[in-house]
Amino acid sequence: MDKYLDQFAKASPGAKFGGLAVLIALMTAANFFLVIQPTEDRIRIQVGQRRQLDLDLAEKSAIAQNLNERRREMDVLEQKLAEALTELPEKKDVEELLAQINDIGKKSGLEIALVQPDREYVGGGEFFARIPIRMTVRGNYHEIAMFLQEMANMRRIVNVNNINLGQAALKNEKVVLQSSFLATTFRFVETKN
């Protein structure tokens, strides 16, 4: 190595500067290929990974935002289902319905002569079952009309058909009619697919 340094020291100034320029060019090239280019490659890879992570974050944020919205929608639907099940319950609950009808009849001033639930009927492919209830009540026209109006205002769906107003009779200075009709209520039936 000393031999090369002696030759370099004895060389002309142009050779010295040329050698120094070649040495600097070699060091610059080595620095570029060994340090700078691998660092730039790592930076490029990390920038690409960051872009991918940003896209993933945006996608997951959209899903999270959508999830909260879906949860709110599900809460609203569950509340609507609970309300709908009061109108169209899943269970038969005829005893509860008969108690409500009896209370309505008493408040309307009627005498309930007959309450006879019939067999439940489920039509083919329907999502509900019909529960017919034959009824006979006694009272004046206004009391019967009030009774039917109160039944129409119940939370549970009750249809009244085949209303028959019988002969009028005078009882305690009051015109009393005997009315018979068919009250039909419904319940939700799970359909099998």
UniProtKB/TrEMBL annotation:
Q: Does the keyword Transcription apply?
A: no
Q: Which GO terms describe its biological process?
A: type IV pilus assembly; type IV pilus-dependent motility
Designated name of the protein: Type IV pilus biogenesis protein PilO
Transmembrane region(s): 17-36
| Alphabetic keyword roster | Coiled coil, Membrane, Transmembrane, Transmembrane helix
Parts forming coiled coils? 60-94
Indicate yes or no for the key word Metal-binding.
no
Taxonomy of origin reads: Bacteria, Pseudomonadati, Myxococcota, Myxococcia, Myxococcales
Query: What is the scientific name of the source organism?
Result: Myxococcus stipitatus (strain DSM 14675 / JCM 12634 / Mx s8)
Signal peptide annotation: none
